[in-house]
Sequence to fold (379 residues):
Amino acid sequence: MDFRDICGGAVAAKGAFRAAWVRDAFHAVDRAHFVPRRVWSQVAGQDGLYPVLDRDGDPDAWYRAVWDPHRSVVTQMDGHRLPRVPARGDFTSSVSAPDIVCSKLCHLDLEPGHRVLELGTGSGYATALLCERVGDGNVTTVEIDPELSSWGADNLAKAGCHPRIVCGDGMEGWDGSAPYDRIIATAAVRRIPRAWVEQCTGGAVVLAPFGTCYAGGGLLRLTVDGGTASGRLVGTAHYMWARGERPGRELSPPESCRRSASVIEPGQILGGGWAQDFALGLWVPDIDYAHRGDGEERQVQLWDQAGSSVTVVSYGGWYEPTSVVAYGPRNLWSEVVAAYTTWREAEQPDLGRFGVTVSDRGQHTWLDDPGNVIAERLP
Fold:
């Protein structure tokens, strides 16, 4: 069975080959060359553990996973590579799914000769695709993890690709090869670093998976002009967080609290699905949340990234004057309700109506027009 052709058909059907060069690069680069002989499946078993796929033990299952058009294969969990047994934990590196890799590349409008900075080398698979388009000498790729950087470099060399490979923090970009015509990130961020903008030429494109503490999964495309980068969300891209961008969970709120009723049943806000969550997060970017309990005992806990405010909301009896318990200076539930109300009043805008501008004045998120700022992050 030709898994690559099956995968290519699925990727094409999704429209991820709309740039012809991406299709050609996909067929020229052997994805299997960039996947270790043992990986974790992205799909957990009934026991909640992620099974190991072994090329030597079950090559059919391994190749199916490698060429699955819609799922990544996990190469690192909790910072550990080379899986031997099924496990559970946080995914910290993967070879991303072919459909999203190819779809992202189409958004770059990449031309031969463009100078490209890739942030997050990982396995080197996406790096090899970039090299196919612009040539090895025009690609610089940065990886923060020394082990992954070495592994990616080895994969690329064996595949005959020789870009400039740097072990360092991609959030700082890489001034050594600047200026760049294109910058592409392979991990999700909550802020676009000024260094990226400053290392670009005029008219350059910056493309990054983007999200907030409340919800990740957007794809942001910015154009650089005169030291400012601005643009809209152009699609979805569910990637792991860049290491310095992972939302924090260290809480130290005061013991005293304030109690109140909720003006709305929590499920109307927290059960609206990903697109609604993502939009609301753009208004309240520093608020994170998690559910606990079930049935009448179900609650949601919200916290800010300063660790100073926590709000707990009970589903059962949400209208009671004690259902919302706020610790610290902010009532986070009131802020989320206000964001939900504003989103509804704006006729529930979809992803493409939101954008971001990055300048020396900070990062501003806007709706419809850069002048209509809905959230800001100061320098």
Observations:
- The first strand starts at residue 38 and ends at 40.
- The chain has a mean pLDDT of 95.
- The radius of gyration is 22 Å.
